[in-house]
Amino acid sequence: MSAYDELMAYQRDTEALSQIAGRLGWDQETMMPRGAAPQRGEEMAAIEGVLHARRLNPRIADWLEFIDETTLDAVGHANLRHIRRNFDRATKVPAALAARIARVTSEAQGIWAEARSDNDVAAFLPTLSDVIALKREEGQALAGEGDIYDAMLQDYEPGTTGDDIATIFNALRPKLTELRAAVREATPPPQLEGTFDEATQMKLTRQLAKTFGYDMSMGRVDKAVHPFSSGSGLDVRITTRTNPADPFNCFYSTIHEVGHASYEQNINRDYLLTPLGRGVSMGVHESQSRIYENQLGRSRAFTGWLFDQMNAAFGDSGVADADTFYAIVNRVSDGYIRTEADELQYNMHIMLRFDLERALMAGDLAVTDLEAAWNDRFEADFGFAVDTPANGLLQDVHWSVGLFGYFPTYSLGNVYAGCLYGPLRDAVPTLDADLAAGDTSTATNWLRDNLQTHGGLYEPREVIERASGQAPSEEPLLAYLSEKFGALYNL
After folding, report:
1. What is the rounded distance in angstroms from the CA atom of residue 407 to the CA atom of residue 425?
2. What are the angstrom distances between the C-alpha of 343 and each of 31, 35, 117, 210?
3. Which of 117, 183, 364, 461 has its CA 20 to 30 A from that of 123?
4. What does the pLDDT profile of the chain (491 residues) look like in tens digits?
């Protein structure tokens, strides 16, 4: 075997072990007995220790040195790019620190879930302080003399800095605020009323998953506190949640997670269990989940089909017609929860979290002041006060599991989705008719062929540019939102 072949065989085992670790995390969120959390923490720490040792194995440096790169094709060069990046990262983080982070964040999930259920911030803050201290230590190890937050971002959106994101957000914020103010002055559509059986929600949500191309022979849909997608290749699982008063929460959480899962399922099978066999970044991942959920799933064409499915599943919903249903689905409403936010206000939730976590990592905001900072910023941005911690600081799982630098990729995904939507519509002139018939395949196939199949072959911005024909910019997203909500609210 050549040095490259040996390295890739070694990498295949590392990727397989990483998938096993991911499956442990999925089980923890869906089926694991609550009392098993301390043991699961030890299990996660043990496997993370094994993975960390493999990722910094000195043999990787030897293989990289002896590979003749002139013999490699584009796939080979891309594999080496990812392996070098991961090896460099692994060699900077002490193994003991990686294991401690895995153990503490595993246990922190349960502590966060109970604190959220009890609306008890004080019960969570000591654990959050431990997580932040460990992540700052990790970030310092990665950054050296550089910026800690920038170093953390590389795990989720390689090549992007905090300043890059701040520039996009500074362009988005005033225009979103202006559009939101105009919408709030207009007459809103009615709200959906009634009670919707949760078992029926799950039945319809599985139908929606299939409608958007999710291959259930290589996946499954379960319930969790916080919806997520897990896995890649031949085993990609999603979760959703139900609320008897709000079936849209279930349906659009599912469509969102199917966007993630379809990306993973549609990657070129030749890349299975290699560094290219998963989504290239969380921003690109979010572009898929958001375009599935919003530009496709909340479109007038698709909501017309969903209106009929809702009435067939639940009986008369009390909504007069498909146009009213479309307006209800896209209703701009005051609310606390990021995952339930409408398209117009969603990015404002992300900007809040981005600024707070960047300040935490810089040491400019103490954990003890975090709740007050969150509440003050929320009231300033949204115009009303947080009523309970579960609707404020405790609503998201991300910080409990150490995902600092993750939140801004949600808005990057919205920006990328905006860039993709125009070219998709140009390429699929039958799009509205297809969606109105409940056929998403022309849209999802275009996304598969132009973006998803590439996996990690290209860098994040490059894959968006190749698919859309344009450099990423916030302008297409703002134009889409202005047109959509201007029409809905007669602005």
Report:
1. 28
2. 32, 38, 27, 24
3. 364
4. 799 999 999 999 999 999 999 999 899 989 999 899 889 989 988 998 899 889 989 999 999 999 999 999 999 999 999 999 999 998 999 888 988 998 899 899 889 999 999 999 999 999 999 999 999 999 999 999 999 999 999 999 999 999 999 999 999 999 999 999 999 999 999 999 999 999 999 999 999 999 999 999 999 999 987 789 999 999 999 999 999 999 999 999 999 999 999 999 999 999 999 999 999 999 999 999 999 999 999 999 999 999 999 999 999 888 999 999 999 999 999 999 998 899 999 999 999 999 999 999 999 999 999 999 999 999 999 999 999 999 999 999 999 999 999 999 999 999 999 999 999 999 999 999 999 999 999 999 999 999 999 999 999 999 999 999 999 999 999 999 999 999 999 99
Residues 6+ apart with CB under 8 A from 391: 336, 337
- pLDDT tens digits for 364-387? 999 999 999 999 999 999 999 999
Please report where in the chains the tokens 């941005």 appear, as a residue.
Answer: 381
Residue 257 designated active-site: yes
**Is 48 annotated to bind ligand?**
no
Q: Walk me through the domains of the chain, giving residue ranges and CATH numbers.
A: 3-146 (no CATH), 162-488 (1.10.1370.30)
> Is 145 annotated to bind ligand?
no
340 is an annotated ligand-binding site residue: no
Map tokens 């039958």 to a residue.
430
CA distances from 263 to 88, 133, 285, 446, 468 (A): 27, 34, 7, 12, 16
Inter-residue contact 104 to 127 (CB < 8 Å):
yes
